[in-house]
Amino acid sequence: MKMNGAKIFVESLKKEGVDTIFGYPGGVVLYIYDELYHSDIKHILVRHEQGAAHMADGYARVTGKVGVALVTSGPGATNTVTGLATAYMDSIPIVVFTGQVPTNLVGNDAFQEADIVGITRSCTKHNFLIKNVKDIAKTIKEAFYIARTGRPGPVVVDIPKDVTMDSTEFSYPDDIELPGYKPTYEGHTNQIKRSIDMILASKKPVIYSGGGIISSGASKELFAFAELLKAPVTNTLMGLGGFPGEHPLFLGMLGMHGTYAANMAVTHTDMLVAIGARFDDRVTGDISEFAPEAKIVHIDIDPTSISKNVEVDIPIVGNAKSILAEMNKLLKQDKRLKGFVRESEDWKTLINQWKESHPLTYKETGKLKPQFVIERIYELTKGNAIITTEVGQNQMWTAQFYKFSKPRTFVTSGGLGTMGYGFPAAIGAKVAMPEATVIDIAGDGSIQMNIQELATAVQYKVNVVVAILNNNYLGMVRQWQSLFYGKRYSHTDMSHKPDFVKLADAYGAKGYAVEKKNDVLPVLKEALKSKLPVLIDFRVEEEEDVYPMVPSGASLKKMLLA
Amino acid sequence: MRHTISLTVENKFGVLARVAGLFSGRGYNIESLSVAETLDPAVSKMTIVTNGEDKIIEQIIKQLNKLINTIKVVDLTVTGHVEREMVLIKVSASGENRTEVLRLVDIFRGKIVDVSPDTFVIELTGDEEKIGAVLNLLKPLGVKDIVRTGKVAMQRSIQHNTVDNK
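Structure tokens for the assembled complex are given below, as produced in the milestone run.
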């Protein structure tokens, strides 16, 4: 059937199973919006395009499906760049459709023109400019395929206005033609066997797992792997939820704000099994002193992640889920396993001593503590909520004090560290899973970066809860200034800000302010029952720091403990 | 160490920018790059000369492979291959110099492709060593300008264990 490009666009999205678009209209996407007017695809009108990209990202993280955003050309497109870079760093599958000026004006510095394909080349997995209506269906198919396969990531599809107006026959392709794109899923059999030998010959193993466990859906396999080996597990920020937070083998997060036990364990291990993690600088600290005594097996779907930061002994390229399944199968039949578990008992005793001597903790001062608020959120939701965060202290305390037990329940900007991410991501998550409890743990700085989305949340009755840990500072930067810049708090004072209760009210949401410990639980309970979005202004201890802390670039064993 | 990398890519707009962006975004160096269509017009071949430690080269090759439009990457440095470069040299040639230039061009099997009363433009093809040698000989006579194509390279059909016996 002959259709115009806009209709082909909408039909193609339906073929990809898209049920929700986060978007913002504008001149060059009007044909598309005209089609959406009649379509049953749900459209969430955001208040800023950055919000659309983060919402699509939040939607993708909690469902595992590809999130979709639609924006206009020029500023609409450039406003999504931070969202794209966020998704790119964390390997999140989203497709962002940007309108473009008509093809005859491309390159003319036309009104609202931006070379978005050029601008986003380095922060997308791939991007496309569609020049002919005949290419729309094929390109959309490829875009979704690229976004969700291999190491997932964001894809931009730029569509000039005239292309959406032109007509052609519509047929959605069955096959993909990408001669240069063949992700490796199955691990190399010999490498897998060798890695089993290496692991079973060790005495002090540690499993270090990251976001690859979440994106490949390998948490069951990881659980079985750890249980078979009885080996301790530490997660990266992106890996939290990939292994049960309350499990006795769990060490907590490692790295700059990791637990004492996790950082000591990786420092002293003789066998590091890295799975779906990329040895990020926030994880390793001084790379030359990271796991100095360890042999390293590195499982990752992206060959460029392997031997990028550290030399590994056995690289295995492929999908974490299938490789772990294969390793588990081999381990179950392996006669050396029993002896291995017995031999590593002393190691686990040592680890338990570290855990007991230096648990995550904070000092009571009579004032409301941010960690206390997070503990109550955990207590109340029993680890069953979807938690998003902003970036900074709020994010680190959440990673430390909320014990994530299931994959896809922790939504945070790990790689890029995007302030203003958590609130729109929470909206995206809640739109994807209306039945879930969704809480954004925010700071008073971060929440102001995308506060406009409160209107979106109210309009679509997206009843997320935003718990603002309000300390009147850009807390993490202030912490660095306090520790390393002689307490010169240069431009980190955030005490000038709106009254969040009134602000919530002005938007038609609900607002609370909490100063006393005893009010935390009752207010949280009420907030979780609310049909409206809720902002809770927790007035917490102003100069509370996040500990442990490894100073930037220092060895992991050089933790500041309080 | 210097590496010559042969890159087979889809012949689409923007691919060169992706390759160039990969190098510039990660601080890798491109010494020379040449690109043109192959027998199959849907496919282009690039020859890239770059340098770096083994670890950097390994990353470059992996990153090139990661590009969606990349079909094949071969590090020719570790395989038997032939490489050539073409250079156009504008050289001063007046009086007795003219015969000397012509003699050199003849010895190195170059061609004169443009003549004026006091200059020649020489076309010369060869590997780096040869072009270097000719330039060294011509410089004292007065080289006014040079343009080089950058290397093109091709894997040999028969791989010898011995070093390239030219």
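The interface with chain B takes residues 117-118, 121-122, 125-126, 129, 146, 178-181, 302-304, 307-308 of chain A (CB under 8 Å). The first helix of chain A runs from residue 5 to 15. Further analysis is deferred to the final report.
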